[in-house]
Design a protein that fits this description.
417 residues; single chain; two-stranded parallel ribbon; 11 helices; alpha+beta; 8 strands
Length: 417
């Protein structure tokens, strides 16, 4: 075995035999989804934010604590006594309770519930974005694995042909230029594989992060799972689904609700709260052992919370514009994504009618006939390169079909495909 053959063999083992040194995680789409929901740290962190916001609902329901005030004599100058307490001394005690009026607690509870809802929607938004990455990466890695396997098979064939032709050229049976042409084809295909490997390992890294694993991920899928993304849907129906389910829009709508609730809260803050108190005074009042009761309330003469109320009114108008802007963005995004998807489906269906087992039969026949000298080097290299271009193009089309369909799922916020 010469150096190129040894290199090809070792490289093949490195890419496809890494399980000998590192675990390989073989998974399908459903298993990957389950593992993703269970292990992804980003989702787990976001779920903790939901619980944190729900805890604020509990806090909003809690009533203000009462306040106890105590005062004792520090120094009695008449009797020259420090801390003169007891029957002949002086001490005071007061108990205060703030009475929240005007519906402020109700507003605080409503605000907390809306913030919890926004946290849940943010979780859904993150889930959609990460699932889009997961699904597109899975099918991408699957196609890369298929294409790398084909490249390795062809490089092995070329290596065998190179050895044979080099011997024949040394004997003068074939021209040296034929060997040079084969070397050029080998180098070009090897370079293509190297570029593909860069994408392959980058996608592996992304998948390992999403699934929180160090194992090499081998995605198992069939052509039928690719074709399940081909479904008859209308643009209007998809846009309506997006307007009802897109987390970004639902968050903005909840922000508008939050702004409306905040305005109501600011109006209620303009209503002063009542502070009730009762006090005991041992000796400093009009009577000994005096018990007092009272009420205090701020007089809303100058500060009636006008600025905060005005600010809240503008926040509602801002939220209205944000909702309209997002609705327009969603309609435009879905329209363009659907056009790309439709074009990709058409491209895939046309390519599938053209690409069949004839290519595999022909490339094997061309290789055999080239070895038998029935096919010229020019014909063989031309077909060989054309065959690899077809493989690369079919990989691109399949990946684009999945990506375009999954992007519509992402933009809709629902599994349309």
């Amino acid at each position: 075995m010469n150096c190129k053959a040894a290199y090809s063999f070792v490289f093949f083992l490195f890419v496809y035999g890494v399980s000998a040194a590192q675990d390989t995680l073989k998974t399908d789409i459903h298993q990957a989804d389950s593992l993703f929901l269970k292990n992804n740290f980003y989702l787990l962190a976001s779920s903790m934010n939901i619980e944190a916001q729900k805890a604020q609902i509990i806090q909003a329901k809690v009533y203000p604590n009462p306040i106890v005030t105590a005062a004792i004599n520090a120094y009695d100058p008449e009797n020259s006594r420090a801390f003169h307490v007891g029957k002949t001394g002086q001490s005071e005690f007061q108990l205060e309770q703030l009475i929240v009026v005007g519906g402020k607690r109700k507003s605080e509870i409503e605000l907390a519930k809306t913030n919890a809802k926004i946290a849940e929607l943010a979780f859904q938004q993150l889930l959609c974005q990460l699932r889009f990455r997961l699904h597109t990466d899975l099918f991408t890695i699957g196609q890369y694995q298929f294409l790398l396997q084909k490249y390795n098979q062809q490089l092995a064939q070329l290596d065998t042909l190179l050895n044979t032709c080099a011997l024949q050229a040394a004997k003068g049976n074939i021209p040296l230029k034929d060997v040079v042409r084969l070397k050029g084809a080998y180098i070009k295909l090897n370079n293509d594989r190297t570029e593909l490997l860069k994408e392959y390992f980058a996608t592996q890294s992304s998948l390992q992060t999403l699934l929180q694993t160090s194992s090499v991920i081998a995605f198992q899928f069939s052509e039928e799972e690719v074709e399940k993304y081909i479904q008859l849907k209308t643009l209007h129906d998809i846009q309506q689904e997006a307007l009802q389910n897109r987390p970004e829009l639902l968050i903005i709508q909840q922000n508008k609700t939050l702004a409306e609730q905040y305005l109501q809260y600011q109006k209620r803050l303009a209503v002063p709260d009542i502070n009730l108190f009762t006090a005991y005074d041992q000796r400093s009042g009009a009577f000994n052992n005096q018990l007092n009761a009272g009420i205090s309330i701020p007089l809303p003469l100058w500060d009636r919370n006008q600025g905060n109320i005005k600010t809240s009114q503008f926040r509602i108008k801002e939220a209205d514009y944000n909702v309209l802007a997002m609705q327009t963005e969603i309609t435009s995004d879905i329209q363009n994504a659907f056009r790309l998807y439709t074009q990709t489906v058409s491209e895939y269906q046309k390519a599938k009618t053209l690409y069949n087992e004839d290519f595999e039969i022909t490339i094997n026949g061309m290789t055999d006939n080239f070895q038998k000298r029935n096919v010229s080097i020019v014909e063989f290299i031309d077909f060989f390169e054309a065959y690899n271009d077809v493989l690369s193009e079919m990989t691109r089309i399949r990946i684009q079909l999945v990506n375009s369909a999954e992007r519509i799922n992402l933009l809709t916020g629902k599994d349309i495909y």
